[in-house]
């Protein structure tokens, strides 16, 4: 990587940081800081949901699988498309109608404060490991591209992310997510044709690819795994507290539907585009070993991108991947402020709660950095992400999600399912291999993780219906929900920040387009492709600015 690439990275980093910091005055109350005023444009929320989920490990986790196993990586991600469409039809509007600021607030309303406290502590504990698993790929990308030690990258990037998330709140997260989506889409549309050109065309790539490279499943990622992982994605995207925030921050149930549908639609196309470069790199260099395949995507970019464009791609990938970190930091801090501190000190002012949220963001950010530093000792990022998914996905997110639709489930029943499921999953993961000589493969680990809570909840639901159990808790929840809806209907929507958010996005996009256009003049080859993309992005940014007026 040369000096121009490094300069581009610094310029893009500064651009993202300034965009995030421009919302330093947006957090005047809890709703504006953690829900962007509650009237977020659906397309912004949908793109942010896509970037928050998609970037969690796309370049490193799925890129590694694409390099080693081929088309299986695309199959895995198509399960996310199906999940998004189902969520758009049935689940996202249901969350919006709860009028809860956080998922923890819904749990308190629906299942009781005691249940909420236990889920909150579990969520915060797990979220620290989740954000650590998200920060690690960011630093891995930097290490592969620049040679900067991964420890240094984790610390510096972690501090940078927690600063603008603590200052700007959800608006900082949303605006930087949308900017990164546009930048990365432009960049990958340059990488893909150049990658095919490097290998000698599509036909040559297909001919030289390893045997079974285009199979939809393999021995590790079987059809059973795909079904189980699809269910995990459904529960995770529908029930993860950070993603629920995207459904509750829009103005209407119809907007919430559009958020889910946009997410699903983007996952129809994006797996094809993103996974092909590391697959092509497998043909170019089939001998990456150990954990080196985690850098396959960046290594392909280094092969084909002209001067400066590698820096832009790296900057975009780093901050896109980091969107998963800032999303989880924001909602975790919101839970600490709104659902723990506020319950302890009910007379606290909004300004104090926002301050508590910012302090919580910093503390959680530091813990995230520590966990990210430990990821290599857990067996690598693929192992961490898959194990977290199998252990916690169904157990943590499905029971409260089930209670969103069921009038019979209570705080005790959903907690029982969560505790039993986590216990069984932990036993098979950490103790069964040594105690009873049973080691679950990837597919069976996912099946057990998803299957146990489904079976337990289904059995409980049938039993509660047959015994005509009391629905008092659900009736009380409906009264609380109706009162919140009445308050929300009497409030004026806070759309004042929407225009500013759109304007900031437009300025960021236009500036990025100008940067790409300048890089076209420095490129030794493919000038027309780069210039055309830069011009298009710049015009798009100017159009967005005009729409914000």
Automatic annotation (TrEMBL):
Q: Which UniProt keywords apply?
A: Cell membrane, Glycoprotein, Ion transport, Membrane, Sodium, Sodium transport, Transmembrane, Transmembrane helix, Transport
Q: Which GO terms describe its biological process?
A: inorganic ion transmembrane transport; sodium ion transport
This protein's record includes keyword Transmembrane: yes
Pfam families per the UniProt record, alphabetical: SSF
Give the transmembrane region(s). 6-23, 43-65, 71-92, 118-136, 148-171, 178-196, 221-238, 259-276, 359-378, 384-405, 414-440, 446-465, 504-523, 529-545
InterPro entries reported in the protein's UniProt record: Na/Glc_symporter_sf (IPR038377), Na/solute_symporter (IPR001734), Na/solute_symporter_CS (IPR018212), Sodium:Solute_Symporter_SSF (IPR051163)
Alphabetized PROSITE patterns for the sequence? NA_SOLUT_SYMP_1 (PS00456), NA_SOLUT_SYMP_3 (PS50283)
Q: What superkingdom heads the lineage?
A: Bacteria
Q: Name one GO molecular function term.
A: monoatomic ion transmembrane transporter activity
Query: According to its UniProt record, which reaction does this protein catalyse?
Result: iodide(out) + 2 Na(+)(out) = iodide(in) + 2 Na(+)(in)
Q: Where in the cell is it found?
A: Cell membrane
Q: Does the keyword Transferase apply?
A: no
What's this protein's family per the entry? Belongs to the sodium:solute symporter (SSF) (TC 2.A.21) family.
Q: What is this protein called?
A: Na+:solute symporter
Species whose genome carries this gene = Seonamhaeicola algicola
Instruction: Please spell out the taxonomic lineage of the organism that makes this protein.
Output: Bacteria, Pseudomonadati, Bacteroidota, Flavobacteriia, Flavobacteriales
